[in-house]
Amino acid sequence: METTYHLFVYGSLRSGFRNPAYQYIADYFSLVGEGVVRGKFFDKGEYPVAIAADDDSFITGELYLAKNKEAFDWAIAQLDDYEGLNVEPGEKPWYTRQTVEVYINKQPILSWIYWYSDDVAGMEEIITGDIMKYLQEKNKP
């Protein structure tokens, strides 16, 4: 299987959130553009989460490409750590990193994504498919 050097982010790692971990993305990846993947958002309370979907539900985010393929493994390991993939024995990570097709202008591009891996039962689905728009509406005075 061909290695992918693309990364799709949809939440706190998007450029508009100004998360300190975004610095890894800014340093090691170049923005390709806005894209969509098959998925669904849910409101976990303190932050929204996303899961894969096999229907026609799509979520919006940003697609990035590694600037330096030799540094990709190190950069993605830093993001794995941020997303909590490195847990103590016996603990379950809240996210998994998987490959997914990202659509930009209806063209599929294979990319890495971090999906929420816990149960979403009881969480409200975010219908907009865009966390930025959802949080703007939710936080209106």
Tell me what you see in this structure.
This protein is an alpha+beta fold. It is built from 3 helices and 7 strands. The mean pLDDT is 89.
Describe the secondary-structure layout.
Blueprint lengths: L5 E4 L12 H7 E15 L4 E5 L5 E9 L5 H11 L12 E10 L2 E10 L7 E3 L4 H8 L3
Q: State the secondary-structure class.
A: alpha+beta
Count of distinct strands: 7
Q: What is the alpha-carbon Rg in Å?
A: 15 Å
- Tell me the strand percentage band: 35-45%
Instruction: Please tell me what the overall shape is.
Output: globular
What is the first-to-last residue Cα distance? Answer: 49 Å
Unreliable spans are none
Q: How does the major sheet shape up?
A: 5 strands, antiparallel
What is the N-to-C order of secondary-structure elements (H for helix, E for strand)?
Answer: EHEEEHEEEH
Helix content: 10-25%
Please report the number of helical segments. 3
Mean pLDDT: 89
Concise structural overview:
The chain has 141 residues and is of the alpha+beta class.
Supply database-style keywords.
141 residues; alpha+beta; 5-stranded antiparallel sheet; two-stranded antiparallel ribbon; 3 helices; 7 strands
